[in-house]
Input
Amino acid sequence: MKRKILLALLIGVAVAGIVVGARGDMLLAESDAGPLRPIQTVPLPGVEGRIDHLAVDLAGQRLFVAALGNTTVEVNDLKKGQRIHSVAGIKEPQW
Output
């Protein structure tokens, strides 16, 4: 449960302030948007152990999560709010 809360918080931080413009361009929200808050939870069933680095692909609206304990990189679709792929067998996924 702690892992899901942490992931929700990290996803919220990663995508907070991102809005889609009229043409579909990704824009940063203005500074008066208020405090950061979780906006989405993406469940990662089967992910055990430590979650390490995160990377966001703004254009593709994907979040990459290095699941160090699983030796995987979890690929999440931020539009759908779900994991779309798990890249397995990576010895050190945080690199």
